[in-house]
Design a protein that fits this description.
Order of helices and strands: HHHEEEEEEE
Strand content: 25-35%
Protein name: MSHA biogenesis protein MshK
Shape: elongated
Number of strands: 7
Structural class: alpha+beta
Strand order of the largest sheet: 4-5-6-7
CATH architecture of one domain: Roll
Organism: Inhella crocodyli
Helix content: 10-25%
Largest sheet: 4 strands, antiparallel
Keywords: Signal
Length: 123
């Protein structure tokens, strides 16, 4: 290493030790400055929670029917994010949303006759 490089490294080390070596003064450069973060209004818990629409992924009919909604298995009467599962049908399910409105979810593809239960439930 040349004398010039040694002087540059010494200057960088001195500035860093004094807290002046980096533009962010040792903070995470991907974050806003602390003054900006302190001035930002705090988000309420309700506005911070993302709204996710219920999506029906599958139904199971028979003695113990269930519906797969957003990756969670629900039986009639159970809730998912404030939505109550009212009933399960061959090609969909009916929910009641938190405001009390009925919401009908449809399967993307109708079930094949081989998948219908022997109890005589028909679409």
């Amino acid at each position: 290493m040349t004398r010039r490089h040694c002087v540059q490294w010494a200057a960088i080390a001195a500035l860093t030790a004094a807290g002046l070596g980096s533009p962010a003064w040792g903070l995470d450069p991907t974050q806003p400055p602390p003054a900006w973060r302190a001035a930002a209004p705090a988000a309420s818990a309700a506005s911070a929670a993302p709204l996710v629409r219920p999506r029906l992924q599958g139904v199971r009919l028979g003695a113990e029917p269930s519906a797969l909604i957003n990756g969670r298995v629900l039986r009639p009467g159970q809730t998912w994010q404030g939505h109550t599962l009212l009933r399960i049908e061959v090609d969909g399910a009916v929910l009641r949303d938190p405001e009390g409105r009925s919401l009908r979810l449809h399967l993307l593809t109708p079930p094949s006759p081989a998948m219908l239960p022997a109890s005589g439930v028909r679409p």
